[in-house]
Structures are given as C-alpha cells and as structure tokens.
Fold this protein.
Amino acid sequence: MRVAGAIPARYGSTRFPGKPLAELHGRPMIVHVCERAAAARLIEKVWVATDDERIADAVRAAGFEARMTPSDCASGTDRIAASLTPDDPWQIVVNIQGDEPFIAPEVIDGAVQALLDAPDCQVSTVAVPIHDRAAFESSHVVKVVTRADGRALYFSRSPLPSPARLDARAAAAPDFAWGLKHLGLYAYRREIVEAYAGWPLMPLERRECLEQLRLLERGVEIQVAVVAHDSIGVDTPEELQVLNTSPLSRSNAGGHEAS
C-alpha cells in the first residue's frame, strides 16, 4: 500500500485568520506540521492542500509540495479530495490537521497501521484516554465511543459516555479514563476520499460540526486506534502565544527533513 499525507490549510479561519502562516518559534505553523508528517515512518509523500498562494509560497519555501484547491471546500477532507489528481499512485491518504504543529509522527503511523490491519475498513482514526474531567466536559474536546472491536459508534462534543451513573469511587482513581478524546487525524482508502467529496453534508455533521459524521451517517465504519501521545491544537492567537512562550513547546519544535 502506498501512503501519502495531505494537510488541508485555508487562510480564512473565522477565529484565527491566517493561522497556517502564524509564526511558532520563528517559522510558520504549517511548516511544523509538514515536518512532523514527513517524519512518519509509513508516509511516503506529504503535500499541503490550500486555497491561498501565501500559504503555498511558505510551504514551497520550506521544501514541501503545495497543491491549490478551490476556496469553497466544505471540510478538510473535501479539500484533500480536490487536491488529488488522476496520476496520483496513493492507495491510502492521511488527513493531517494543519493546526496541530507538534503531532507525534508515531500517532500518524498509528492511524495508518490501524487501516492496514483492518482490510475490511475504509477509514481509521486515533484517540487518547481522557483523564481530566474538565477536558471531558469541554465542548472543545471531541469525544468518541467505540465498539469492543474498536470501530467508532459516535463522535460528539458532548461528554460521552454519560457520567450520570458513574461510580464516584472509580472516578476518583488517578488513572481513571472519563472517555476517549478524538484526535482529528484520518487515514482513508483512496476511493472513500473521492466518494466523500460527492456526498452532501448530513444532519448530524451539521449539528456537531464534525466532518467524520458524514461517514458514519452513510454507514462507513471507522477503525479507532488508541495511541499514547496527545496532540495540541491551535484554535486562537492566545493559544499560539502560550506555545511560543512554553519551554516544553520549544523542546518539541525540532525540524525534520522535507520529503
């Protein structure tokens, strides 16, 4: 299986316009993501799918590929589909979020491996246990619940599963997991990416504002791999400022060779 990583990046974020180009430790955030993706062992090629020449210029200056897409793509997956060409040899395409500059390459490999290990499945993703109740209750943290075999049952911004009948003593344990936090990373078989772009938005997708629900609502199964490393997303300038001033963040900002 030949695997590529695609990073959707648009300039016009509502909460943070120009976010991909915002500087993190002296370099555009999108470049950090490219370097992390290129370091994944199972990724053969990386490109950025964007609607903005300024983003494309920054990506190319760092030695990576940029592909131009329409500006009206409804989701990151739609943008990736628009960036594919008939000559592309990739059988699996990984959707890597452009606002997670310190995503561990091992997490990307985990998503790919989960799909390779599930030949009857079209999509895979990753999650980490939630040990903090505030994070579990936050609408900014997407939760996923799974079947016993790891296939996703549902994704939501609400607390799932419900804590209503939770044993208080169990919840007090320091290693207690309230649920699973979904990391916005997907590995798709090529045919499902192309099909996805032709499907209209679905009711639950609109209500939760979660693109993966377009798949579940159409009966597409998603394999979920539980991984060891969380990922830090950047949604606002304030969050980026915190990363720029964090010593831990700086220690994670080492560069990798472009592919």
Notes: The chain has one domain: 3-125+183-249. Confidence is low (pLDDT under 50) at residues 255-259. The first strand starts at residue 3 and ends at 9.
